[in-house]
Automatic annotation (TrEMBL), chains A, B:
Gene3D superfamilies xrefs: 3.30.420.40, Winged helix-like DNA-binding domain superfamily/Winged helix DNA-binding domain (1.10.10.10)
CDD domains listed in its UniProt record: ASKHA_ATPase_ROK (cd23763)
Gene Ontology BP term (one): regulation of DNA-templated transcription
InterPro entries in alphabetical order: ATPase_NBD (IPR043129), ROK (IPR000600), Tscrpt_reg_IclR_N (IPR005471), WH-like_DNA-bd_sf (IPR036388), WH_DNA-bd_sf (IPR036390)
Protein name: Putative NBD/HSP70 family sugar kinase
Amino acid sequence: MGSDGGDQPRLRQLNERVVLAAVRAAGEARVAEIVEQSGLGRTAVEEVLASLVERRWLVEESPAIRGRGRPARSYRFRAEAGYVVGLDIGAYSVRGVLTDLDGRMLASIRRSVTPEAPRARRLEAADEVIAACAADARLAASKVWAVGAGTTGLVDPAGTVVHANAIPDWAGTNLVSHFPHRLVVADNDSQLAALAEQRRGTDATEDMVFLHAGRRTGLALVLDGKLRRGAFGAAADMSALRGVAWEAALQHLHAVVPDDVPTVDKAERAFAAAREGDRAARTAVRKYAHAMAVAAATAIAIVDPKLLVLGGAFSQASDVLLEPLQTELEKLCPRVPEVRASTLGALCVALGAASLALDALDDRLLSPTRGPLPPLAVRSI
Amino acid sequence: MGSDGGDQPRLRQLNERVVLAAVRAAGEARVAEIVEQSGLGRTAVEEVLASLVERRWLVEESPAIRGRGRPARSYRFRAEAGYVVGLDIGAYSVRGVLTDLDGRMLASIRRSVTPEAPRARRLEAADEVIAACAADARLAASKVWAVGAGTTGLVDPAGTVVHANAIPDWAGTNLVSHFPHRLVVADNDSQLAALAEQRRGTDATEDMVFLHAGRRTGLALVLDGKLRRGAFGAAADMSALRGVAWEAALQHLHAVVPDDVPTVDKAERAFAAAREGDRAARTAVRKYAHAMAVAAATAIAIVDPKLLVLGGAFSQASDVLLEPLQTELEKLCPRVPEVRASTLGALCVALGAASLALDALDDRLLSPTRGPLPPLAVRSI
């Protein structure tokens, strides 16, 4: 109510965010387009643009000369100003992806670990993955502004792993405090995989049950366009439900593969055998699909989603897994949603962790209550 | 995008809705308050106000004279301009509530029916309830602008009962086409009960699993402030889940009551006996609570809500039911949300049906794409 001395800078900060958002949404935009998109006056837009170029958030592009007259200036968001790494910290591996501020993936790194590795070793592997991502993309380590970390088990809002059945020395680890980066966020792996599917998956993924199928298994919900985390961050945490036996499900696949195949490769070998028509392998896949369907059917009955997405590493075996999954769901559900395989495969958790980090950065950068945008010459996010 | 001849009326319609919404939200508002609330100029607001008064959407109130000077004019939404009836069509009864456009309840009527009654008789009872509601509130039948109907079973978006186990001659009934009113909407009873709880319940009901406990039993979800209907209108439809035995649960209560007590009264008698310390009745209530908890625990595991609300007619027995329900949930759930009893009791479904009708009216009245607001002298919604 009324106006005070603080209103002018606040308005300026709001305008900066509006202009920045308009340019980002367009990829590259001319002044007239930004004026139209932002609803601001031309003078205000030009002032803000000059200031954002000076502070290196935007870059003025030299347009190709088309037709007569002076070509209109256009502006591009400097998505290469900073980068984030999304981590997937599992029992057998730590994966990382590096993306720019627009989410374009520039590097993907995987390091093997063992379920029995002590906490410090797993965290060290995560540090190595971040460094290797930056090196792979030929970037200085300081260019990684933010880290998102996904891991198995329940992660509380402060970033502490509350429990993680798949990794003995893991509960109690605080992921946010471990990494030295200015902005670190963490969440459960299946929830992050669903987030990645919503952001990067094929169309119509605004309302889905996401079945995370791989060496780790889980469910997550995207409802009305929003990842459902739950009051305790435990939405779709099936460890609470009797009659859901993820571990036993995996054993069906492992049992049809020779003992000397490493555990980490067994499931893929079973899928490969099923693909070649091996009868025992096909039966094993059907039993596995049944166990997945029992869990998915519970979530389907509760939220009645438009879509069920088969995601995780095993989505790469959708040629042999999708049909049995659909068949088992039809036995269990009066109403089966559309069933579709993700195309993100084993990278889904790391990509979701990167999306989480980018969301947190956007929140910090684009909220007008956070003060003026810092200049990008220094690392000051 | 440029302007054409259609812009001016559209802007006017938008302004009408903005002003109407501002007055409704305030209850009664002075011009200065409406200007502040709406963000419109004073001249525009005064023009719109005059027009809305002329068409009888608003009434100008004669203010009490406080202090010196000419008292500021104030405006009130004519919530008494029209009314809605919310129906709850069950196996044993049809209930109705009549509310004004602000949702104030002015009448509540109940008619008994039997589960075996033919479809036509049940619909006739519904017609009688609407008429009796209007008569009870001393209103002409034409003052009832809209009807909302809730019923047991699954109701499709067109208002047809898809299935209803509790009433033999009910599946296939189209509720929307039966009633002669201009605006008729219908939905599942448990979902409407949850809607009523969200709108009229005590605080913090923006995120909950609603356990509808009465002669009919069901679950419904309000997530992030929004009733979750689901892709097929079947969210939280537990008929799809094995291991959930609503009917058997009720039998625990019925079994401890003498055979000559009418079925419709048996549960309340069992709760009364438990209240008086009858050991068999208390055991029966605990068994009933266990069955409810099994179903609720499934929904809790999937959506991880802040709150579980015990609603429906049996919420009136919360003094003997809430503690066993909480105890059983603690056995089944790693994370138990806050558990609370509804205060809406047996009226919850009818009140939710009224809310649904009011929402549909608001949508028709307040959407600027629907054309200018009609004058209220004639019934022309």
